[in-house]
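Entry 14. Ran structure prediction on the chain below.
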Amino acid sequence: MPSVAEIRQPPSSMLPPSKRAKMQSTASTAEAEAVAADSTSYTDAPALPTDTQTNRHNEVDDLTPLSACTSTLQYTNGIFLAPMVRIGTLPTRLLSLEYGADLVWGPEIVDRAIIGTERRVNSQTGVIEFIKDNKQIFSCHPIERPYLVYQLGSANPGLAYEAIKTITQADDVAAVDLNCGCPKPFSTHAGMGANMLSTPILLCNTLRAMRRAAPAHVAVTCKIRLLPTQEKTIELVDRIIRTGAIECLTVHCRTKDMRPGEPALLHRLREIVDHVNTVSVEMGKTVPVVCNGDVWDALTAPRIKELTGVTSTMIARGAEANPSCFRPEGSLSIPEVIAPKWVRYAVALNNPMGNTKYCMSQLAFKPADSVNKNANGAGKQKPMSKKQLSVLRTGISHAKSHDELAAVFNIDPEQIRARDVGKEILNDLRTALAEQETKKKLSHSGSNFDGDRLGAVLSNAAADSESASGAGAGDASQSVNNSSSSNSGSGSNQQTTDGHASGDNQSKATSNSPQPEWKQLLASSIGENIKNEKSILYYAFSTVEPPSSVHDPAKPHVRYVVHRGFVNEKRDGEAPGGIAPFNPSFASSPCLMTTTDVRTPKVQQLTAQSSLRAQGEDGSRGGECEIAWWIESTQMQFRISGTVHVLPTSGHPLRSLFPFERLSPPRNADAMEDGETKFDWDGERKRIFEKLNAGLLASFCRLTPGTAHPNADRLGQAKPKDDTSSPWPLELPQPGKEENDQQKKQLEESEKNFALVVVEPYKVDLVNLAEDTRTIYELVPGENAATGRWTARRVVP
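Output, structure tokens:
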């Protein structure tokens, strides 16, 4: 059988004279395979001949059980360097990591090229090289190991197995990825790359082989393109996820036949993400989805995430033009910063000169990018002229060695070689990685959420205010209110405190659940003033609708909703502080509840409004929200920031995104002996539903809110309650009090459309105008709102 290199070589007539002579020489097969590592060397060629083994892998699913992956690699909330042939070599990867990339993919290396290589370590530079016949096939450095993903090109499970065994023999990479998205002939002609999309059994069997070959702590991932139809794409994605072999899926939002200049089909990705989440939950795991396509820099990434619902994004062409595109502050100057540093890395790490010249030629040497937009005097420098940039490009083009290339940027190559690679050359990178790790540890992890019709019928809700207050808007003791208020107004409390109510008489939902101070103040304000201030249960609830494309702005939305209490909390006049848990086996929590109709556009808005904070490790998704709550009686304003989660009826697809365990209140230490171990969320949902008044119960069995009214032409100026001919009731009795089968059926429809909305707070900004104070309460990073600790700090009002 001919080697991959022999098959992939273009006709000799298409080659330059130097390469044509080489092709006609008696070069060994091993030498040709080494050339195969540089995929840009190939063009169209005949496909690999098939054999019995290949046919079997293409026709029969390999259902042998796989061992579990123990990798701790994080694919959420990141920006990654995409795999790029020739571009994604060691210097580009190191620069990308230095400027903010969370993970870096190496260039595609085909299976036969890496198999049979010798692993060598350069004692001076630390660079690890995989060599075949004195040619470098792949290189890496230990400093990038925790962030490095090796991409494999393969269409043969047996060869894929050998290739992964080779690259993971000494634990040099954090993950291995199968390329199923490259549309270039050098990849697809042998059945690899995007051609794998049309052979799903072979694709899945190859992933399984990679999982078996890789050590348990090395993750396996996959990168695909869209198929022509959404149905076929989701069908393929479903098969890939159900293999159980991968920990992450990257989707390039273009089809195989689309060119890079065509806009990515980003609108198709959200449905894929939702399907992956649903299947992952069924399998009891989490598989993040990464978006590739039209992500240019760190500024573009958040909008792409909002639009598509992915957990992370991947940059290709933006990083090819400027590896500092991962900086949230903006890219740095190519001629003044990036190109000189690229050359220093290339010299110090002995990067192949041909690759260095190619990568340097792809950098964006443009006048606008020649200004160093650093912190000092950003944008005030005069850009280089076209003539100056032309001189640089010419110097790069004419350079035949790293020494000549260094001279173009006035760099002394011998001085670079004399420096210690680990302590000096890579010092900036080491510092940047340490800072990034610190930020990750301090970042707040949240969850995601789905939305809902948070706009209740206020005219009906007003009549329901008394019962709503009993649903958990409990009042705390007077002593707590006085203690907390005076404490927040004290000038001696400028420093951060623990954020919980203090004092012997503080109200606790249970013995093991001290309540945050802000919740005590809010609960007591409601409990003491609800009889005289009927509007006290209404607050403004704001969200942001993601843009329909990366070119459109996000749209803010605000509506008034009714407070339905805190999770698992009820009013009890005989309990300490007047409040008690509804389910005595559990405490209450600071998570707030309201209600919605699951059919409304708000649900889609909130579900689509994914954010960095709103991605839960448990597979949940939530949307960001802010509550503005003014209590007239106490002259207090509560601005509550949180993530929102929707709990619909059993069987609804949005249930898979609800973080049941994380939002559950803590177990009551006084009731640990009973057999109840899990909080009954459906019971909580039912409890709130059954407390709604007759008008609200009826509102949930109407036609979908916002759709055309069936009697619009006859209504005129009539009020809704005058519309007795509408195909829905104006009121419904409480569940269990139905008078006929029709009411029973209508209540069933209402319950199906009813959803409980839970706000998971992480920050509360409390302004007390009566005492002219302002306090910021924040959830301790890494903890959840239901059981976590809070801090408090005084700020200028």
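The CA atoms of residues 535 and 606 lie 25 Å apart. Will compare against last week's run tomorrow.
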